Structures are given as C-alpha cells and as structure tokens.
Amino acid sequence: MGKKIKKQTVLPLNVKPKGLTKKVQLPKDQNLTIKELTKYDILFKQGEKNVSKTSDFVEVGEDEVDSEEDDYFKNSSFLKSNLTDDAKFQKLSYSKQLENEYEDPKEKSKAEESVKQLKKRKSIDDDEEEEYNELEEDEIYNEKSDDDDDDDDDDDDIENERENDENKREWKLETVVKKRLPIKTHDGRMKTITQVITAKELKETKEKNEKTKEQLIEQVTKERNAKNKQKGKKPTATPTTISKEVNKQIKDAPQKKQKKKDNDESSDESDTEIENLDVLDRDIDDNEFNDNSKSLNSNKDDDFSKLSEGERYLKEQELIENAKMSLAKASSLIISNPENNIQAIKELFSICINNKNIVIKKYSILSLCAVFKDIIPGYKINKDLADEIKNGQTSADGAGQPKQKLSKEIKKIREYEKKLLKFYQNYLVLIENSISNILSLLARKVPNTNGIGFFKINGTNYSNNDLTSLLQCILKAVSTLLITHPHFNFRTNLVTITSRFTVYKDKDIAMMCLEAVKSLFEHDSTGGETSLEVVRCLANVAKSANYLIDPKVVRVFLAMRLTDVIEKINPFGFASDEAKLGKKDRKHLTRTEKKKRKEDKSLDKEMKEAEAEFSVKEQKFLQTEILKAIFILYFRIIKKAPNSPALTSVLEGLAKFSHLISVDFLGDLLKVLGDLIENGITSIANAFNTNITAFKTIKLHGGSLNVDLKDYYVRVYSLLTDMVLPKEHGVIVTALDALQLMLGDKKQTAVERVASFIKRLSTIALFLPPHASLALVSFIKQLFITYPQTQRLLETDSTFSGGDYVPEAQDPDHCNPFASTLWELSLLTNHWHPKFEPILKRILSYNESQMSSQHVTRERSPLELYRSYDNSKGGFNPPIELPKEHHLLGKMRKLKKSFKNREIQVFITPQKQFEKSSFLNQCQQQTSDKEIQKQNITFDNYFNENKDFNNQMKLFKKLENLKNLKSRLDSQKSQKSQPQKKNTKKILNTK
Amino acid sequence: MRPMTEEESKTFFEKLIKFIGKNVTLLIQRKDEPYCFRIQKNKVYYVSEELMKRSQNIPREGLCSLGTCFGRFTKTGKFKLNITCLDYLAQYAKYKVWVKPSSEMSWMYGNNLLKAGLGRITEDTPANQGVVLFSMNDVPIGFGVTSKSTHECRKLDPQALVVYHYGDVGEYLRDEDIM
C-alpha cells in the first residue's frame, strides 16, 4: 500500500481531533490560567495555518513528556531503561518502542528498523501490530492537525511523507477503512457507492411506492426552494464549487500518478479511487439536479406553499411512517437470509442518505447498526479476502495470480463475506464523515466538503439539537458495534471514535461511550486486544486534554478484568524476560534454519487464527501490555497534572492494581507517592487510596527491611476528621481497607500511635451514620485485640501520662492519647441502634484473660457490619422490633390452655410505688376500652360482656319495677319518684 | 541556675533539632504548663516554671539538680545530650529506629547498631540524622545518628553499621555515679 492511499484514509480523521480537543478543553477553561489559554489559542491558530510546514512527525509535546519523565524518575530502575539510549533501545518492551517511535526524528528510522526486526520475531500476528502502528499513526496525524482545505499544501505533505518514511510503505493498512471504495456490480463495471444506491433507489421507488416518491420530491423541492429563496436565487452556486473541487482533484491526480510510479502495487487502485472521487461528486450533483428538474416539471411548488403547517406536519409523519416500513421490510429481509439478501442493505443506505428528515436518518442509522450487529459473523474476515477487496477488481479477475480452486459453497461464502465487508466499510466511512461534519457544524464552521456523510452539508439547516441527537445516534451505533463485535475487521476505527467521545462535552454522549468502554473491558471476547487498543487510545485522548479529564474516564479502567496469569509490572522497564532470552538463543541460527523457522511461524500463525482461542502466553502478554499502558497513564497524570480532577480515580486505580506493581518500581513509586502525600493530597479519600497503594506494595515487596511509613500515618490522621462531612460518608469502605492495612498488622505500629488513632476514630464515630460508626466501633474492637496495651484507654484511674490529651494535634504521635479515656464508647452504648450495645458491652468488659480465649473470627468484620446495616437509603436497618411480650401475658396464656379455655379470673394488685407494667396497662385497657373489646373476642371480653349484660339486665328490671312503682304512685306522690329516676339514669350512664 | 545565653541556646537547640526537628516548639509551648530550660553548673535542665520559681530560693551551690536533665555543655562549649532526656526525645522523635530483641543488649552496652539488628526504620530517613531507638515493644532504649538512609539500608549487608551510638539506657547503670 502506498502512502497516498494512507493519506486519504487518514484524512477523514484529521479534522475531528482538532475540533474535539478544542471542545474538550473548553469546558475546563476554568482550571487554566489566562496565560495558558492564550497559549492554546495561538497554538491552534498556528496549527490551522502552518500545519503543513511542520512536516516531520515530531510532536513537540511528546518530546517534552519524555525528557521530563527522565528527570522525574531519576531513581534507579528508570535510569536503567533510558529511552533515548540507542544501545538499550531494543531491549525495551515492544509496545514502548512503538509508543516512542515518533518522539524523536533521529530515533525514528532506528525505531522502524527495530520494529521490523521485532515484527519478524514476535509471535503476535501481524494484524495486531499493524493496528498498533496505525493507532500511533492516526494520533500523529491528528496532532499534526493539518488542514485539508489547502490543496497545495497537501502536495507538500505528500512529498514530505515520501521522504520521511520509505519504510512505512510496507505497512499494510487493510484494517483502516478506505474512503469511497469502489463497488463492483454484477456486470463487472465499477460503480461508486452513490451510483449504486441511486440506481437502486430509483428502481425501487418506481416499482414500490409512487406516493412516497412524490412526497419525497415534494419534501426535497420544498426545502430546496426555501434554500434558494434564502440564497437569493443562486442555484448554480453549488455545482460551480463542486466542479472547482473536482478540477482540483483532477489536478492532483496526475501529480499523484507521477509519484505512484515508485510503488507499483497501489498505483491502479489509487487511480481508480481518485476517479471515483470525481465521479462521486458529480453524482451528487446529478442527483440533486434530477430531483430539481423533476420537481420543477411537476409544478407542485404552488400546491406546496398552500399547505398549512398542520398538513405539512402530517405529511412529514406519513413520510416517517413509510420510511419506517421500508426500513423494517429491508432489515427483516436481510436478517431472514443474510447470504442471499445482503444486497438489500443498499436500500437502507439509500433511505438514509436520500431523506432529509433527521428522524428517518436516525432510524436508518440505528437499523443499519442492528442489521450489522446481527449478521456480522463471529470471526474476523480473512486477511486475504480483505486484501482482495482493497485491491479492487484487478486481483479478483485473477490477473496473473493463480487462484486456488474453491468449491462452490466456499465461493459463495467468500462472495458473501466480501460484500458484507464492503458494506460495513461503507457504513463506517459514512459514520466517520458525518461525525466530522457534525462536529464542524456544531463548532459553527464550514465543514470541508471532503466526504459524504449521512447528510448533505449544503442541504437543509439542521438545528444544534438535531445535530447533537444525530451524533448521539451515530455514537450509539458505533459503541454497540464495538461491544458486540470487537473481533471484527475495522475495529480500530470504532475504538478511536468511541474513546475520543468519552471526553466529549455533552455528558450524555460521553457517558454512553464510557459505558460502552466499560462493558467492553468486562466482556472482551478478543482476549484483551481490543481493550489494549482502547486503553492506548484513551491515554492519547487524556494527553491531548492535558490530563484535565473527568475522573469517570479514568475510573473506567477499574472495570478491567485481569486474570492471574499477569506478571508483575514495572511500567518503565522490560516487558518480560522472554525478549532478552529469545535474543540470545537466536544468535546461533544459520540462514537456512532461520528460513525454516519463518515458515514454521507463518504456519503456526495460521493455525492459531483457525483456533480462535487465546493461549495463556498470549493472554499474559496482552494483559501485561494493558496494565502497563494503564500504569503509564496513571503516572503521567500524577506527575504532570497532580491537580487534575482525575487524580482521585487514578489513586483508586493504583490502589486496586497495586499488587501487580513489580519490585523494581518500588522506589520510584514510593517517591511519587511521598511527594503526593506531602503536598498533593487534600481529601481524605485520596489519602486513603494513596495509603492503600503504599502499604500494599511495601507489604509485598518490602522484603527484609521493615519500614515505618510515618508521613502516611500523619496525613491520614490529620485528615481523618474530614470523614464527618456528609460528602465523605461514602469513603468509609476505603477507610476500613486502608486502616486495616495501616494498623491491622500485629505489632507493626507503635502503641501510642494506635491509641491515638483509636481515640480519634471513636470521636468520629459519634458523628457518622449508624452503620458507619458501627463498623468503626467494631474495627476499634479489633485493634483492642491486636494491641492489648491500648486497653489503657479504657481505664479511668491510675493512668500515668505526662501532660494532657491534645485533640487537635496533626501528628498521632504527639497527641498523648493515654491522658484521655474513651468516653465516646460509653456514650455510644445509649445509641438508638440496637446493634451497638452488644458490641460495646463486649469491648468494655474486656480484660487480658478473656482476650486470649476470644475467637475473633466468629464475629463479623467491620465491613460486613457496614454492609449489613446499611440504611443510607432510608428506613431502619434492622427494622424496628415490636415490643416484647410481658412475661405475665405468656403465663396467662398457659393458664388459659391448662384450663381449656374456661373462664378464669385474674386478680392483680398493682403496687403504687412502681410504674405500671405493660401487662397491667394492657389488662386495664382491655377492661376499660369497650371499642377494642368488641373487636377482640377474647376470654376477658366475653367475661366482661357477660358481666355487663347481667348488670344491664338487673338495671333494666329495676327500671321496670321503678316504672311500675312510678305509674302506681304517679297520681299520688309525684315528688318521691323523681330522685329515684334520676338515680337510675345515673347508674345506667356509668355502666 | 540561670537562663541560657544566646550562644548557648543556639548550640543547644541545634543539637535538639537534629533529633526532634520542629517539634522543639512543642517542648516549650506546652498546653498544660509553661516549661523552660535552665543551666545549673553546666547542665541544662528542662523544668516547669513553677518549680523553677520555687527553686530560686535555694542558693546556686546547694542546688544539685532540678527538673529533667537534658545534657551538659563541655569545656569546649559543645553540648552533649544526656540519656535522661530520652523520654522527651522519644515522644517527639521525627525518625525512629526499632531494634530487634537480639541486638537490644548489644546496643545497651554501648555498641553501634548493625543492619542485622535493625527491626524497623521510618521511611525516608536521611543519612546522618538523629534517631531515637526503640525496642520492638516501643520502649525507648537510646538515641543515635544514622549512617545510611532508609533507601540505602535496603541493600546493605547484615554486618554494616546503620546507627552510631550516642546514648543508651544502659548508662543509667554504667555511669550511675556521674549522672
């Protein structure tokens, strides 16, 4: 492959990063000083004007990075592997070489040589390497940020390129999507994408749906008219500009041809491509004019203007519905039998491109994505086949190349694969173009009319909202494809797009991409290759954003699944010992042996591809590389941007992966962390994470020497009080982990220090939510067991100590904890939470003899306590218990049973000097409260009811008697009966 | 008994700072009680002000000792720390070295500490730094000066010197008569 093609392939990427980096930096402007801002502005302007002059591949920032790095890590291990040291260059890990490839122009040629050598040696397959190369390459192009508008400059570029990298010509770039790929139709003629699509579309519309076509035309004409009115009737403007461009490109073509003589391989192909390009532009013109003329002929303009807004809306809806229907038809057709009906994808493409309605575009993009998701096979399409496609028809016709005889079925499958790959390629090209167009439109710039996207730039004016939603749609498609088929061809493009948009200013889009990356890390079916690419890409993105990135982006790495096969990492050292050993072995080989070896290797490689499984060795290599890339990013952030918001997640990541850092790196790591601890750390979470890293590594690699990390204790101790702030409450899990590492080991720390930590932790526990303070209390209990001497804190008398307790001291060694007592614990015994009391009682009743017999393992760990009693979501955990039953109540129930539910009378003599017990209260309530009595049919109620009934009956009889008496005496003694009557009434009322 | 002259206090605090760094201020500005340094017969005493005021009633010749002795000035004007100040040094020590039980006795007989006896050391201790030595149970047993930094200590062979002897608790027995 020649560089011209490469140039073309890379072009679509060129514009994006510039806009992107700018955008990325903009929201973070607050963090930058004005000086820096102006510097950036100047840089950008320079970049836009003079890019082409900076033709070599050196990126200034890149050089700076490494020189600084040298200064920074001046400790032993890094010096050993000096990057610029020629002699040791080859010993460096493979990826490191690749990474540094372009950092130094002098080194470059050497690097390439060594890459070539390595290529021969390394057992990884070529594709992977090339993808790495491309990755690097893309980045460089991006950084160069050249401007495509200047065609003259382009030529200079091309020349420079040729001078600069003769070697690169060998690199095959089949995995990068080529633009404007020619499509071969059944009659063998070459057609460009749009040609095919339009032809198909016309046929389809004629055959299928006359109505939709009319509507389409109406729509188009309407928009076109509107546009023309706006532009003041300049319909010829577009064709002229386009023709200009065409002319330019035609001009370019012969120049390119001249250079092409150097490399014969690619000449034909790039020729055809350029022609295609021209044809393509013309095609667009033709289409539009066809549309125009048709609509003019039909004279429907007048009708259209008459339409009311509502009708227009309805028409639009109808249009969308129709489009939906046809999309669904085509998609289901493809999915029902992809091998036969793959041509139907063209329909989807045509719907997408030829509709102006943004909703239809979105639908079609997504349905295309869904279709591809379903029909993409579970394997990577063979390299040869991909080559074949790239080389166009010449090789397919078998011009001079003897072809293997294939059976019919295989031929069919191959044919299908070829088509699929082609369509997929086209899809990706469209995606890339439209992303770049959208970005430039959003930045209110005139997009370079470099490629056709999903929409025509000169068409209708889309609003910002529309563009963003379309962008979101496209990225959704990209990320879905990346997640579901990371093994498939062209994943590099997907990876680049996805990782670039993780730092996009629009939060929704960024989150979507992050989610995609995360799930990719979690279920990487390629055994880590894709993850590695993503990690590297993200590192580049972070660099271009000056490491001022969202902590969420860096936190994504935590989702990485790393197995045990991984080896310990020294991020700036050798990849492994294998490389060194292998080199020695190889020296003994003769030429013939070498040849044989080569053959064996290529055979092995094919076999491996067929296996489609990842050997342990491969996995080990990949994961080591991934981890190394992550660590390099981490340390760059710590070193270059310690004020970056991402520092939190960096420290989290270090804490998580700290067990994988190799012993050689111990000194450097401790130095970096020490600097951080001294002045970089301001939040308690960061302090804890740093401590976890430091203590873990020390514990793993400290070896014979037992060091006391005093500074780390001091920092955590002084920041510990921050934990009471509500925003820091979530840190408790990390805190427990860190504290366990710091203090949990037996006899690692001075008793005094432990005691001051205990004192401060118990003070904090008073202010925390119950589950957190419960965890702390239980941790304190563990400390009491590990350090029995600290139990002096629990004694109130005869405690010797010089001076007073200094609660506000910064240093745990100076606060004199034994002058105080743990009054906090006795205060916590009154906590409403039911679980405090048992734990605290156990602590407070400790003494030496009990301690030895105590089984610590039996009890729940602080973390378990924290988790099980978590009530951060509200409510009570554990739930509130019902009050306990009074013991007399149980007795009564027993009695009742033994008497077989006969009536019993219970006599209670309440004692006045005590408060009423709950039992008595209940009994009294039962006897007094009639409402409740009626509902509850119990023994008591029955008894009371009976009694009442009898009373009432008695009273009733009395009343009757009295009434009789009254009637008798009424006439004689009216005064006598009245008081009696009153009496009876009273009695009744009281009852 | 008199306060120190400027020259005296300079040499004295320089020596003290070598062991406890900035924490010297904590010695003087105590929360509970004001303390001060006084010289009596070439010896420097750390004494609470109340005690100091009371002792002013005793004539200089008759006053044998007061407060805690921190050390003495030699005839040449140098200051030498005494082991009696160990409690305060231990409390405020910036860098600490823990001694393995096997080497404790050797240290307390006045020998230098070897790498073999090094139980634990504070991270980032520089060379030629005053350190306080502890037994593994955190009992202070003396003080000395490091010969190597922590980082260098990692690669040292067991017979190499790590801490030069300066003072140890064995002096309480050995030099009982001159204390």
Automatic annotation (TrEMBL), chain A:
Residues 125-164, 265-289 have a biased composition (Acidic residues). It is found in: Nucleus, Nucleolus. Residues 103-116, 200-226, 245-255 have a biased composition (Basic and acidic residues). Residues 98-171, 198-305, 585-604, 968-991 are annotated as: Disordered. Residues 323-427 form the Nucleolar complex-associated protein 3 N-terminal domain. One of its GO terms (biological process) is DNA replication initiation. Keywords: Coiled coil, Nucleus. SUPFAM superfamilies: ARM repeat. Pfam families: CBF (PF03914), NOC3p (PF07540). Residues 585-598 have a biased composition (Basic residues). GO terms for cellular component: nucleolus. It comes from the Eukaryota. GO terms for molecular function: chromatin binding. Residues 693-835 form the CCAAT-binding factor domain. Belongs to the CBF/MAK21 family. This is Nucleolar complex protein 3 homolog. It comes from Dictyostelium discoideum (Social amoeba).
